[in-house]
Amino acid sequence: MFAAVLRRTPIQATSWERPLLRLCFGITLSLLLLLLPAPLLSLLLRSLENAQGEFVGLANFIHYFNSGALQRSLGNSLWVATLSTLIVVSLAFAAAWALTRTRLPMRGWLRAALLLPILAPSLLPALSLIYLFGEQGVLKHWLAGHSIYGPLGIVMGSCFWTFPHALMILVTALSQADARHYEAAEVLRASTLRTFLCVTLPNARYGLVSAAFVVFTLVFTDFGVPKVIGGSYDVLATDIYKQVIGQQRFEMGAVVSVLLLLPALLAFLADRWVQRRQAATITARAVPYQPKPNRLRDSWGALLLSAPVLFILGVIAMAVYASLVQYWPYNLTLTLNSYQFDRLLGDGWGSYLNSLRLAALTMLAGTALCFVNAWFSQRTPQPGALRGLFQLCSLLPLAVPGMTLGLGYIFFFNHPENPLNGLYGGMTILVLCTLVHFYSVPHLNLVTAFKQLDGEFEAVGESLRASRVQILLRVTLPLSLPALLDVALYFFVNAMTTVSAVVFLYGPETSLAAISVLNLDDAGQTAGAAAMAVCILLTCAAAKLLHGLLSALLARRQQHWRGR
To answer: Are 136 and 329 within 8 A, CB to CB?
Structure first.
């Protein structure tokens, strides 16, 4: 009888549990529909209206096309995104190969250094590049007369902050290697180049495609780098900012936002299509690949890692140094004056404290919501149609640029007939927008964690007359704690560094640290902007360190079974 219980489906429920679980799942799904599709629909409708709110159809789109701005901004966005993608994916693949195919010492530290840009706002590399290659830059002669303000600066800054995203994908792709393939190549006396072209590259092709789509979308939709260092080089993201903030033409801002959404959505759909075609490269008989000692290969790995490591550390070091200089470039005395935000900003350290509040609230609310939604969708009985709609809403934020989402929130929550319009300008709407903007990756992380749990937990609990809540608290939650820590860190770091999603939503009392970086740079206080960016970086680094300590403590106290 006990064996029969174990063979039962893990998502059964009693007659009184099933309607209650479906009701709760429906409520959480309605919340997602309210926070994402509804603002996007408001954005689309606003793009079809004039300044007075009258329906004009496609007149706004036609006007934008005829102005020539589309060809210029769209062409510029496509160019910098394509060039950045080629550079980043090439360098990230070389770095990932060096990290997984060599036996270099301190590979963990090298990888940590390569991932540092993910802890900094995208504004930091733009500011640092100005100090390095600007009109008064220490290395301006390296550009041979070319200006850093424009496509060159945008590409360099974009390569800095998107590199970790590509590296993580490609390290994972190259780590999943079967040693038998390399042994067969060695037996057949294949050359190193042939082995690379016939074994390494084909096994990593899906990772390369995924990394390319991710980097392209991030650069195409980025606002921070083009705003600081783009100069007069217009891209779609800065066009939105100019239309809304500069000219108060919200309907034209909606038009550009819709146009910004389309390429990002196409790239997302193409990436999902490629992932569905991906076949398994690791089978039950696979042998994990372990690189053999090879001085020549290690030397090549060190050479490949040196360029990105030096570039990343150099950009960060320049930002830190610039924030400590008295008056660049005339008085290079080190001082902490740039960190005295009381004399630079109206609210002093208030913006930084607001960012801490936003990050903490987003971390708590986002982690709880992702956990509950993933549990409902994976560990409770739900109708297939409801589950499919929930999966679509959960993945949709990956395809929505931050500026598009933020502008949609203006039109939806600031509408006078919306009973929730009182949220506009407060901390709540910032938390909701940030949570939705970064929802998809934590959701996928927790769904993967739940799928790794055996369905017999629920069956055994049912046989012992334990409720689903008891199983959730005593079994599922403890086993999911490592994934929950990763999700919490992801929400915290991204909430601290985000700019595009909240640039239209903050109020006088809710200005954020990343927004202060932008405002200080606009006011000519570049050193102060660098100082605030460094504060954000140090805060995220401290959060990452705390995450590592908690993970180690958790593994020692509650995850002994993983070491068996």
So the answer is: yes
Average pLDDT over residues 275-288: 53
Structure-token pair, residue 457: 């937990």
Give the alpha-carbon dihedral of 479, 480, 484, 485, to 10 degrees: 30
Rounded to an integer, what distance in angstroms lies between the CA atom of residue 394 and that of residue 402?
A: 16
How does pLDDT run across 103-120, given as a tens digit for each residue?
Answer: 888 888 899 999 999 999
Letter for the amino acid at 31? L
Sequence-separated (6 or more) residues with CB below 8 Å from residue 118: 161, 164, 165, 493
- Can you read off the two tokens belonging to residue 446? 């927790």
Q: How far apart are CA 38 and CA 32, in angstroms?
A: 9
Kindly report, residue by residue over 148-177, the tens digit of the pLDDT: 999 999 999 999 999 999 998 888 777 766
Distance CA 295, CA 289 (A): 18
Q: What is the Cα–Cα distance from 179 to 199, expressed in whole angstroms?
A: 10
Residue 219 · residue 85 · CB < 8 Å: yes
DSSP letter string over 385-448?
A: HHHHHHHHHHHGGGGS-HHHHHHHHHHHHT-TT-TTGGGTTSHHHHHHHHHHHT-HHHHHHHHH
Strand 331-334 and strand 325-327: the pairing is antiparallel
Q: What does DSSP assign to residue 288?
A: B
What span, in angstroms and rounded, lies between the C-alpha atoms of 220 and 199?
32
Cβ atoms of 174 and 204 closer than 8 Å: yes
Distance separating alpha carbons of residues 178 and 203, to the nearest angstrom: 9
Q: Which domains does the chain have, with CATH numbers?
A: 16-45+354-564 (1.10.3720.10), 47-279+296-335 (1.10.3720.10)
